[in-house]
Write a structure and sequence with these properties.
By secondary structure, the protein is mostly beta strands. The protein is built from 2 helices and 13 strands; from the N terminus they run ββββαβββββββββα. Helix content is 7%, strand content 41%.
Length: 186
Amino acid sequence: MGQIKVTKCPIEGLYIIEPTVHGDSRGYFMETYNQNDMHEAGLDMVFVQDNQSMSKKGVLRGLHFQKEYPQGKLVRVIKGRVFDVAVDLRSGSETYGKWYGVELTEENKKQFFIPKHFAHGFLVLSDYAEFAYKCTDFYHPNDEGGLAWNDPDIGVEWPVPEGMELILSDKDQKWGGIREYTGNRT
């Protein structure tokens, strides 16, 4: 393996990606993506779009997915700290409806690969966070779906510090639960 360490997560298809950081008194350098390293780890995704967002403390985005044009995502934090979550929505998967979360920070420089057919969300734990991600398909605004961030059937254990007020978009406050999603699938 080259400059990137790839570690499997407990849910098949999810990976933590850790770059080798070369630092000295001037700062640091790292490869955040290397197709050869990914291929060697068995990951053959092709990215077609890069996105970046900034959110303030307490913002919870998600749990989002694309229905007909699912996206795989390689996510990371450039500034700040977030708790990042993926929920398995793959039909027939042994871990359907299960979630996995990881803290991504500017210090740990970890990345999280989330394949197609997973819902994704994150909670900002620092004063603000800059979040960047690569996608395997383009965003289609009329194709978005979501699940309630607090669906008890999923049971994400968001690390909400005492006194933190969550900030959700109107859309993210209206998503249904996984039972409703499962019932509406064809």
